[in-house]
Amino acid sequence: MVEPSADGGSLEIYRAFEQERQELGSIPLTATRGELTKAFKMGAEAVTLRLPSNLVLRKRVRFPAATAENILQVVGFEMDRLTPFTAAQVHYDCQIVETSEEDGEIVVELAVVPRNRISELLHHLQRLGLRVGVIDTHHGWEEMNLLARADRPGPSGIGVFHYAALWSLVALLLTAVLLTPLWQQRGVAIVVEQRAEQARQQATAVTALRNEVDQMEELLNQIPKRRSELRPAVDILRELTELLPDDTWIQQLDLRAGQLELRGLSRQATALIEKIESSPSFSATAFRSPVLQAGGEQRFHLGARINRLELAGDPSLHNELMISGE
Description:
Layout lengths: L1 E3 L5 E8 L2 E9 L4 H8 L5 E6 L5 E8 L6 H7 L1 H4 L7 E11 L4 E10 H13 L3 E7 L20 H72 L3 H11 L4 E9 L2 E8 L3 H8 L4 E6 L4 E3 L2 E10 L13 E5 L2
Parallel strand pairs: 4-8
Antiparallel strand pairs: 1-2, 2-3, 5-7, 6-7, 9-10, 9-14, 10-13, 11-13, 12-13
């Protein structure tokens, strides 16, 4: 604790323990920082400046009870009304000493010291390397601090480092607490997505296999139907044998995909179309090329469609027959 001497030329330095006072010594205001450090082993720690009572103006004022929560700010706004100074011209503090519920008012004790009266003293303390953290006066209340909040020093040196480190640690722990559930949820989501993708791939493979099986089953079901719709080639040959006259010689017969083609010789080739068309088994009978005369016979090439023969589906299911001879 630091207190100016009565003559104002030196500083009294002491420690205060409740009602006791331990004197450490005095030092002139003109001393240097090195002399202070050597004499009292004092560093840059914050000290309390205790002012003589005659430097501090104290008075009691009344305010509405509703201002109790922000009384320090309210007093600052009313400073020029309560004192000859503005709030910017003084260091001040106040405390509520009485509350009257009947009147709806509070009684506030105000302590004020003009800045210009202690500015030189504060300058000397700063030159000596002493940081003033509290300004009070004799017989002040316990928590009195006239020093404006904007002028109060923050933690210094190692204190600042530990303060910042502590808050950094708190921030890291808070971040970890907040992010851990998110990371866990993200991990679960990734696993679920991987399993869902595997299930989708398996479902796609199963669907493709099922479609292939359905197609094969459909083809297999068509075979008996196709076979039942086809007429055996031997039946067609038998019917042609009955239709064609005895003077007709077949040199080549093609039977495939529901079409019939005949090549050969006949004494009456033009009559063959009528004979073949007379059978319900054939239709669209016509010559594929002009009829040629070969001695007493006619060389022909004709074709016809075989009726009641479904051609849809695999052509390999149809009868194929080719007979060639002279």
